[in-house]
Amino acid sequence: MSLEALESDADSGQDVSEFNWDDYLEESGALSVPHHAFKHVDQGLETGLTPGMKLEVCVRTESESVYWVATIITTCGQLLLLRYEGYQDDRRADFWCDIMTADLHPIGWSKQQGRMMKPPEGVREKHQDWEALLEKALAESCSVPASLLEGAQRGCNPIDLLSPGLNVELVDHQDAGVVWSAVIEENIGGRLRLRYAGTDGLPENQSITWVFYLDPLLHLSGWAQEHNCTLRPPAALLPLRTEAEWEEVKKSISSQEQDPSISEEFYRDRSAITPHCFTEGMKLEAVDPAAPFTISPATVAKVFNEQFFLVLMDDMRDEAQKEGGAHSFLCHRDSPGIFPTQWSLKNGVKLSPPPGFQGQDFDWADYLKQCEAEAAPQQCFPPDPSDQCIKESMMLEAVNPICPENIHVATVTKVKGQHMWIRLEGLKQAMPEIIVHTDSMDIFPVSWCETNGYPLLHPCKPRVEKQRKVAVVQPEKHRVPSKDSSPDTTKQHMNSSQAEMGQANGKYCCPKIYFNHRCFSGPYLNKGRIAELPQCVGPGNCVLVLKEVLTLLINSAYKPSRVLRELQLDQEGRWQGHGETLKAKYKGKSYRATVEIVRTADQVADFCRKTCIKLECCPNLFGPRMVLERCSENCSVLTKTKYTYYYGKKKSRRVGRPPGGHSNLEGGVKRRGRRRKRRKQLFVHKKRRSSASVDNTPAGSPQGSGDEEDLDEDDSLSEDTGSEMQDELMDDSEYSEKKSQPPTPSPSPPETPRPTRRRRKARSPSCSDDENRPPSPKSPRTEVPQKLCLESSPLEWSVTDVVRFIRTTDCAPLARIFMDQEIDGQALLLLNLPTVQECMDLKLGPAIKLCHHIERVKLAFYQQFAS
Q1: Residues of the domain holding 430
Q2: Residues of the chain whose pLDDT is less than 50?
Q3: Number of domains composing the chain
Q4: What is residue 449's predicted lDDT score, i.e. its pLDDT?
């Protein structure tokens, strides 16, 4: 694939729509690359304040304005957890403060300003001779730098200092002695969008470049003048302006001054560049940064100084045949993408010969002899790390090297040493896997784009047609079966029609899958919800389309977890399809299972039919054939019992779990009493929604055909009495069905089921809204909580005091959270419902209960201590 094709495709990605990393990882079964693997991201969030540093802070418990020494225990952005000097290892008096609003100063500030220093009461009780304690603390040289607590840098991390409009300088990518100025247009979490000076009005692909703020080639204004570098625009920009115009731009650059307050913070996180030992002419293997898809031979073309050298990608073609000149790039010892010779061979990676190489197999020994060159020794390269936390199939976010403004969902496909191969998702046209260093500043953890408000390009889902459309039916391809046509003839017609569609759309392209909601929906699927589904899904990739179809069916079930169990791949079975992880949610719980999905178009029709039979519904309920008027299976005249006999469990009668039943989908074996209680609740819920009319079946009814009246209560379980059918399927669908049908002759008295239902209703007050039974006259008593009387002010509570209080309430199990998060009295008073749900990861019910007790504390505080 040509580079031009990739560039044209890079701008044609899909629309940036809602994308959720958690759902995507759960559906794909993949793991994300650990956050600590992205050191460049973590460095940008640090403010320079580290645990162990000391400072002076205003003592809040004293009436007069006095200061005392405190030690930083923990940092969280601009929040600091401090401990007064004198408490040693006692955490009870630790307190949080905001560096932006708190009265904080470096050690020695109070003495310089003539302010009084006095410890809080707790320290005075522990240390009678606190003056000696103060002298010792002031003598220690671990104070917070004054620059981090004063001026514009107060509470800022290095990223915050690089605001749009700031002028910077960028070293040329091919010459370490050449520098040009640029202005920051955007700062996306430390990733800077730069516009070269003097390029206003020029195309963005020539005037815009992207770099991370830690790039060793990026500097502040004035750096070129200090290091005697030449001011010159990049070679690609020179022809776009006249020499006189560039001179005018150069004069404006020379007049720019560097802000000394930013300089120290900007270079603080920079690691020093290690001196190299390369010499000109050495051969090595390298990845071309302009097209990082392959590894090829390269040469050290020039050594600038002990830090930088130039690497030139080898090209053995004639000068006239070379496209766009030779590719070269500036490197230092730890630069990504350079390897010793034979690295590819040792790691089992393909080495691409240089363009113009004559011969079938590339051999380094012959190549070095042909070029009369020597290989760069191993000691010129940094050693590979022993531990590597990035593994294959992990996911991350990565920059598109061809179109740097785009960041994609990416999958790690291979890891070798310090380099990995990643596949970008969300491209209309496939791109080769790109090779990146594990410490590259063009890769980011999952949700980085969301955190920084930047669009993320992600994989597309199969198209779902939500509006019902009239299908264009061609007689020679879609012939409506006549009344006297047999099922075998119809099946042959379906197979031949499907084969035609498969050939027309490609081997792996799935045709449209239709939902024929008039067909029998079986015992598991809700007919009303089936009718609300789109008319069809697709066309598209077989796996994606069928996965979407099965997901819609699972969500249309009475009990999605039950349908998922039926579809689950039998671990003992043999299959030739593609395993996909599907999930279901039921009653607040999530379930997952691996389901087999076919990959080729010629298998789709058979797959849909077999899946329908698994779910005991009409084989034509969904599939590549649209049922126009009458179903070929004549499913509308079959009752539920007879249909189950032909297509359901009658064919493979057994007691116990269905195929795949050995999984933990339902959390193991359930007690009958518990299942009975669940049935009762569902029955009551469905009873309210049921209707006496069979033709107008509501969304909660399991069957909507006019022949449903033929189903009697005794027949519904006659085939599988004592089996899984009785235990699992006699849920809301069975009871709702019995309620909606008229009474039919039965061997047992018609009054028999009623005491059973009445007995079940008596167990729970939730049945009081049943239309056949009046509400219970008894209402639950509401107890007024007793007034809370506090012995001390919550503002003075330590973490232990807060935990002790929580343990006296009915939220005692949550006390551990307060202990782990070190929530003291002041923090307790700041808690509200949204904060509790977000920070403590509680559901709504427990969160409301906990907030009730917090509000009691607040009310008592206002009544007793506010004055």
Answers
A1: 394-457
A2: 1, 3-5, 7-16, 463-505, 571-574, 641-642, 648-783
A3: 5
A4: 92
Cβ burial 71-101 (10 Å sphere, 16+ → b, else e): bbbebeebebbbbbbbbeeeeebbbbbebee
Boundary (domain end) residue, out of 647, 668, 701: 647
Cβ neighbourhood burial of 278 (10 Å; 0-12, 13-18, 19+): buried
User: 3-state secondary structure string, 699-732?
Assistant: CCCCCCCHHHHHCCCCHHHCCCCCCHHHHHHCCH
Residue 717 inside a domain? The answer is: no
- The per-residue b/e assignment along 19-43, b for 16 or more CB within 10 angstroms, e otherwise, is bebeebeebeeeebbeeebbebbeb
For 358: left if phi > 0, alpha if psi spans -120 to 50, otherwise beta; the answer is beta
Same domain? For 128 and 257 the reply is: no
In this structure, the answer to whether residues 643 and 513 fall within a common structural domain is: yes
Distances 611 to 161, 273, 705, 716 between C-alpha atoms, Å: 59, 61, 21, 22
User: pLDDT tens digit string along 391-424?
Assistant: 999 999 999 999 999 999 999 999 998 999 999 9
Give CA–CA dist 774/663, Å, rounded. Answer: 43
Q: ω before 539 within 30° of 0 (cis)? A: yes
Same domain? For 539 and 635 the reply is yes
Tell me, yes or no, whether 85 lies in a domain: yes
CATH number at residue 588: 3.90.1150.190
Q: What is the pLDDT of residue 673?
A: 41
Structure tokens at 479: 């012939």
Tokens of 343: 């690295």
d(CA 184, CA 188): 11
Give the CATH number, domain containing residue 67.
2.30.30.140
Q: Both 626 and 566 in a single domain?
A: yes
Phi, psi at 694, each rounded to 5°: -85, -30
Q: What is the pLDDT of residue 805?
A: 92
Strands 95-98 and 536-537: unpaired
Q: Say what the pLDDT of residue 854 is.
A: 93
**Residue 282 confidence (pLDDT):** 95
DSSP collapsed to 3 states, 579-603: EEEEEEEECCEEEEEEEEECCCHHH
- Residues 535 and 643 grouped into a single domain: yes
